[in-house]
Specification:
Layout (H helix, E strand, L loop, with lengths): L4 E2 L5 E3 L2 E2 H8 L3 E5 H20 L5 E6 L6 H9 L3 E4 L2 H10 L6 E3 L6 H9 L4 E4 L2 H14 L3 E8 L3 E3 L2 E3 L10 E2 L4 H10 L4 E7 L9 H22 L5 E3 L17 H19 L5 E4 L3 H4 L3 E16 L2 E8 L8 H5 L5 E3 L8 E7 L8 E9 L7 E4 L21 E5 L2 E6 L4 H5 L5
Parallel strand pairs: 4-22, 5-6, 5-15, 6-7, 7-8, 8-9, 9-12, 9-13, 13-14, 14-15, 17-19
Antiparallel strand pairs: 1-2, 2-3, 4-16, 10-11, 16-17, 16-21, 18-21, 19-20, 22-23
Helix pairs in contact: 2-9, 3-4, 5-6, 8-9
The structure holds ligand LLP.
């Protein structure tokens, strides 16, 4: 987080509160989220996109992708900062409702929404449902008919652009479950199917090309293809398509060497692409939206652990690696195991020795892939009782957490202006026992 710093006494503090104090009050492991950091990133995206798209005569909306991390407090923060909310399940919708997010500010995603989820979404008056299959077009239309309303929908398409971190593929294999494919002519059929149902109002197209992307070229290629497709379809079918959604996926710095994209630069480039296409076709510019998740909540979150065992291991002929075990692991951060994700860490209760040693920070789970930080040079005097803080764990960590090995999930503590409060309490073993049947 932007407010993190090491005090003179060696303790790391965030938003003016020492992590040693957090550990004492709330225990470890704990997720800590810096409210000001989340709010300022939300604001930066909103302002950058609003400004760039106002300059081409339209409005831009930023939908926070709640899958990255959602609690009712976070839903309120982003709402207060002028963002909307993307939910992808009935559970996320329930949190949005609890937070009081207005229905019209909610977009609903998912490649296999259940009828009950669609009913809930329509009953709450969501502003858009992004449809992902022919079955779903019928399901949403049938539900809208039952509710006696017209459902606003977008069609999710795959454009053959796929981006992974530092590169993108312009003719990606479309062998994945999301969206209608441009390659096999499904998009025209999907449009026809939507337009044939008077209970549906087609707003436009949606595309999402991947996540943790550092390269602007993939976004630009996708935007170019998406707006071209939208204009062509609008013309062919003689309809007006007033909205366009460019998805999320902006990468964040997990390691000090990572260089994320600048939202303002992205906004300007994307606005330029949309403007040019609309100008050439001589049509009005649609209202544009994006759906960042990770880049809003990721950098402002950290995980705090307590060190237990420290074990030197002869890793190879010329390498002794220190294995530092902490009191959490793959149940609170599945990303190293799932995606070989790399993280950065530091001692949090003291600076530690200047002498560093090759270290692997590992969890407490009964599995050798239970890695927190794969490779790091860490103070060689790290010992039992020290606190370790892992950076940039605000996105897809609590969201992907499990109770593997019956380890209860850690709390989420928000810090702001020297104060700490519980967003999600720590799970207890009693919570786990309570799930058991008679
Ligand atoms: N919109 C749609 C339709 C999405 O599928 C996603 C992410 C987003 C927006 C937000 O993407 P973001 O800005 O957060 O990259 N668990 C993986 C990431 C999965 C992303 C799924 N979809 C991870 O931990 O890296």
């Amino acid at each position: 987080p932007r407010t993190a710093r090491r005090r003179d006494d060696g303790v790391v503090e965030i938003a003016g509160i020492g992590l040693d104090e957090i550990a004492e009050r709330f225990g470890t492991p704990a997720y800590i989220i810096d409210e000001a950091d989340v709010r300022s990133r939300a604001r930066a995206y909103r302002e950058a996109f609003a400004r760039a798209f106002a300059a081409i005569g339209t409005q831009a909306d930023v939908y926070y992708a709640g899958k990255a991390f959602l609690s009712s407090h976070v839903a309120q923060w982003v709402t207060e900062e002028g963002l909307r909310l993307d939910v992808c399940s009935g559970g996320e919708l329930a949190i949005a409702k609890k937070a009081g997010v207005p229905g019209e500010n909610i977009g609903m995603h998912g490649n296999n929404k259940g009828v009950a989820e669609i009913d809930d979404a329509l009953a709450y008056g969501v502003g858009r449902i992004v449809v992902d299959s022919f079955e779903e077009i019928d399901r949403v239309a049938d539900a809208a008919a039952r509710h006696g309303i017209t459902a606003p929908v977008m069609i999710r398409v795959k454009l053959g652009v796929e981006a992974h971190t530092h590169e993108f593929i312009a003719t990606a294999h479309e062998d994945q479950k999301f969206g209608f494919s441009a390659a096999d002519g499904q998009i025209g059929d999907a449009v026809a199917r939507v337009l044939a149902r008077p209970e549906l109002h087609l707003l436009g197209f949606h595309s999402h090309i991947g996540s943790q992307i550092f390269e602007s070229a993939g976004f630009k290629e996708a935007a170019t293809r998406l707006i071209a497709l939208q204009l062509q379809v609008a013309k062919e079918h003689g309809v007006e398509l007033p909205e366009l959604d460019l998805g999320g996926g902006f990468g964040i710095a997990y390691l000090p060497s990572d260089a994320p994209l600048d939202p303002a630069e992205m906004a300007t480039q994307l606005a330029g692409i949309v403007r040019e296409a609309c100008q050439n076709a001589d049509v009005a510019v649609p209202r544009v939206s994006i759906e960042p998740g990770r880049s809003i909540v990721g950098p402002g979150g950290v995980t705090l652990y307590r060190v237990g065992t420290v074990k030197p291991v002869q890793a190879s002929d010329d390498l002794v690696r220190t294995y530092v075990s902490v009191d959490g692991g793959m149940s609170d951060n599945a990303r190293p195991a799932l995606y070989q994700a790399d993280y950065h860490a530091a001692l949090a209760n003291r600076g530690g020795s200047d002498e560093l040693t090759p270290t692997r920070i590992v969890g407490k789970h009964c599995e050798s892939g239970d890695i927190v930080v794969r490779d790091i040079d860490f103070p060689s005097d790290t010992r039992d009782g020290d606190l370790v803080v892992v950076a940039a764990t605000g996105a897809y960590c609590r969201a992907l957490a499990s109770q593997y090995n019956h380890v209860p999930r850690p709390p989420v503590i928000a810090v702001a202006d020297g104060d700490a409060r519980v967003l999600l309490r720590r799970e207890t073993i009693d919570d786990l026992l309570a799930l058991e049947g008679e």
